[in-house]
Amino acid sequence: MKHVLVLTVLSILILSNSDCSKKPITYKGRLEVKGLCMNYTISVLQGNIDPSLIVSDWTDETTGKSYKNAFKLGSPCTFPATINQGDEFYFTTDTTSVQNCAVCMAFYPTPSKALAIKVVSQ
After folding, report:
1. In angstroms, rounded to a whole number, what is the distance separating the alpha carbons of residues 40 and 32?
2. Is residue 92 over pLDDT 50?
3. For residue 108, what are the contacts with CB-CB under 8 A and spacing of at least 6?
4. Which one of 14, 35, 108, 114 counts the least CB within 10 Å of its CB?
5. Phi/psi of residue 39, each to 5°?
6. Are 109 and 35 contacting, i.e. CB atoms less than 8 angstroms apart?
7. Judging by beta carbons within 10 Å of its beta carbon (0-12, 13-18, 19+), is residue 27 exposed, middle or buried?
8. β-strand partners of 47
9. Is 75 helix (H, G, I), strand (E, B) or coil?
10. 122 SS3 class
């Protein structure tokens, strides 16, 4: 009986330290280009983000300006309208929300990789 109690306690401790209880990683970003129709380019300023999720060096073909660690906004429905070009903010990646909102189809150049994010503070 003592062994069952010990195994139960160990199981609870192991499960309580699982990935389910980890907080999402927060990154610092800046809205670099606020292009029309939510064609937004964001750069990662701080945080160890997976390099496969972003473009390490991207140039806006319209302005010729280059950006490091950039990505296209993949969550236009939930991005705060109060954030303007040049503003810095903190965000997490967001794989849970479904983006079902109307966005116009006009083109403005963006990086080839898109990332859905959730802004946590401005």
Report:
1. 8
2. yes
3. 33, 35, 36, 37, 39, 62
4. 14
5. -80, 75
6. yes
7. buried
8. none
9. coil
10. coil
Average pLDDT over the chain, rounded to an integer? 87
**Going by DSSP bridges, is the β-strand pair 88-93/66-73 parallel, antiparallel, or unpaired?**
unpaired
The Cβ of residue 31 has, within 10 Å, a number of other Cβ atoms equal to 20
How are beta strands 27-35 and 66-73 bridged, if at all?
unpaired
Measured CA to CA, the distance from residue 49 to residue 45 in angstroms comes to: 10
Q: Using the predicted structure, report yes or no on whether residue 95 has a pLDDT greater than 90.
A: no
Whose structure tokens read 């699982």? Answer: 18
Give me the CATH code for the 23-121 domain, please.
Answer: 2.40.50
- Quick one: which of 83, 86, 82 has its CA closest to 67? 86
The predicted-structure confidence for 23-70, as pLDDT tens digits, reads as follows 889 999 999 999 999 999 999 999 999 999 999 999 999 999 999 999
